[in-house]
C-alpha cells in the first residue's frame, strides 16, 4: 500500500507538468512534490502549501501545428517548416512515412504534366469519322419501352435548358457517367460471386464512365453551373442512379438499350450545339487546356473541335451499349463476347 502511494507520487511528479498545472489560484506556481529516488527505494516529501489543481487539455497533435514530418536520406526524422515569417503557409510537396512519392510526369516537350485527373497514357485521338446517323429501330416491347422512356425524359430537359447548350451538355454528362459505373460495379460483384471472368466488360463500362466524366470536367471549364442547376444535378443523379441500378438488376438488356437511346439523344444535342456555334449564337472560344491534352488536340483548337470529339465519343458509347443489349437478346452473357476495350 505504501509502495503504491510512493510510486504514484513519482508518476505525478514525472508526468504532472504535461497533464496539469499546479498553479495556486492568485499565487505563483509552487511545486508540491519533492523527493529523491534510488533504484529500489523512493522517498517523497510533500510541501504543505495551499494549491488548486487546474486541469489543462492539450490538442493531441498540438506540437505538430505549423510543421510536417519527412524523412531525410539517412532515414532520420526531421522537421520541415510550413509557415513563413509572415505567417503565410508555404506550399510543400506530399511526403509519406511509407516511402511512396508522387511520380513526376512530363509531356513530350519536357514540360510538367499538370493533370491529376488523368495521365498521358489515358489520352487518345477521337475517331470523328464514326457514323452519327445509326439508329436502333425498336421492335420488341422492351425496346419500345426503353425508346419512349428516353423520349419522355427529353422534354423536361428541353424545357429547362432551351438553347443553353453549354449547361445542357454539363447536365447531360452528370447523368451519362452513371450507367457505365453502375453496370461495371454490378458485373464486378457478379464476377466475384461466381468466380469467373467478365470478358473485359467491367473495364469497358468503367472506361465509358471515366470518359463521360472527362466530358463533364471539360464543359465545367466552359460553363459554370448556377446554384439551382447544381441542386438539379443532385436530384436527377440520385433518382437516376437508383432507377438504373434496379433496372440493371432486373433486365440488363433493357438497361443497356436505354443507354443506347440516351446516347442517340446526346448525339442530337451536340449536333444542335454545333449549329448554334456555326450561326454565331454561341462564341467559339478556345478549347480548354484539359480538352487539348485529353484528346491530343492541336494547341489552336476551339470549342467547336471539342464538341466534335465529344459527339464522336457519344456515338461510340451508343454502339457499345446497343451491342451489349443485343448480346443479352440473343440469350448470351456479356462475358461470352469480348468487350470492345478502347472503343470510346
Question: How does this model look, in words?
Answer:
There is one protein chain. The protein is mainly alpha-helical and 344 residues long. Helices cover 51% and strands 7% of the residues. The strands form three sheets. A two-stranded antiparallel ribbon has the order 1-4. It has a two-stranded antiparallel ribbon with strand order 2-3. The protein has a two-stranded antiparallel sheet with strand order 5-6. Strand 2 and strand 3 form a beta hairpin. Helix 2 runs parallel beside helix 6.
Strand content is: 5-15%
Please tell me the overall pLDDT. 78
User: Helix amount, in percent?
Assistant: 40-55%
What is the number of E strands?
A: 6
Q: What gap, in angstroms, lies between the N and C termini? A: 78 Å
- Helix/strand order, N-terminal first: HEEEEEEHHHHHHH
Question: Regions with pLDDT < 50 over 5+ consecutive residues?
Answer: 17-85
Number of helices: 8
- Backbone structural class: mainly alpha
- Rg (CA only): 32 Å
Shape: globular
- Order of strands side by side in the largest beta sheet? 1-4
| Main sheet summary | 2 strands, antiparallel
Amino acid at each position: 500500500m505504501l509502495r503504491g502511494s510512493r510510486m504514484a507520487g513519482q508518476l505525478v511528479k514525472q508526468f504532472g507538468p504535461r497533464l496539469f498545472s499546479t498553479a495556486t489560484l492568485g499565487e505563483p506556481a509552487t511545486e508540491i512534490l519533492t523527493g529523491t529516488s534510488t533504484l529500489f527505494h523512493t522517498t517523497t516529501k510533500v510541501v504543505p502549501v495551499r494549491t488548486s489543481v487546474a486541469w489543462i487539455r492539450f490538442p493531441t497533435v498540438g506540437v505538430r501545428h505549423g510543421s510536417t514530418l519527412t524523412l531525410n536520406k539517412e532515414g532520420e526524422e526531421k522537421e520541415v517548416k510550413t509557415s513563413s515569417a509572415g505567417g503565410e503557409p508555404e506550399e510543400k510537396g506530399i511526403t509519406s512515412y511509407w516511402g511512396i512519392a508522387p511520380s513526376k510526369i512530363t509531356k513530350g516537350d519536357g514540360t510538367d504534366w499538370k493533370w491529376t485527373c488523368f495521365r498521358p497514357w489515358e489520352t487518345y485521338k477521337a475517331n470523328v469519322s464514326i457514323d452519327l446517323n445509326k439508329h436502333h429501330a425498336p421492335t420488341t416491347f422492351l425496346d419500345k419501352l426503353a425508346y419512349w422512356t428516353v423520349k419522355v425524359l427529353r422534354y423536361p430537359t428541353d424545357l429547362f435548358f432551351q438553347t443553353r447548350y453549354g449547361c445542357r451538355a454539363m447536365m447531360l454528362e452528370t447523368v451519362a457517367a452513371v450507367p457505365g459505373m453502375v453496370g461495371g460495379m454490378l458485373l464486378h460483384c457478379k464476377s466475384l460471386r461466381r468466380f469467373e471472368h467478365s470478358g473485359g466488360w467491367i473495364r469497358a463500362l468503367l472506361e465509358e464512365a471515366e470518359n463521360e466524366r472527362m466530358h463533364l470536367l471539360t464543359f465545367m471549364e466552359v460553363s459554370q453551373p448556377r446554384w439551382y442547376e447544381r441542386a438539379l444535378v443532385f436530384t436527377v443523379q440520385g433518382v437516376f442512379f437508383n432507377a438504373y441500378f434496379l433496372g440493371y438488376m432486373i433486365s440488363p438488356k433493357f438497361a443497356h438499350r436505354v443507354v443506347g437511346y440516351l446516347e442517340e439523344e446526346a448525339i442530337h444535342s451536340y449536333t444542335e450545339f454545333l449549329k448554334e456555334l456555326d450561326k454565331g449564337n454561341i462564341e467559339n472560344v478556345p478549347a480548354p487546356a484539359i480538352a487539348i491534352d485529353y484528346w491530343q488536340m492541336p494547341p489552336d483548337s476551339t470549342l467547336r473541335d471539342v464538341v466534335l470529339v465529344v459527339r464522336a465519343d457519344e456515338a461510340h458509347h451508343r454502339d457499345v451499349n446497343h451491342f451489349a443489349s443485343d448480346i443479352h437478346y440473343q440469350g448470351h452473357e456479356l462475358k461470352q463476347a469480348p468487350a470492345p476495350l478502347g472503343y470510346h
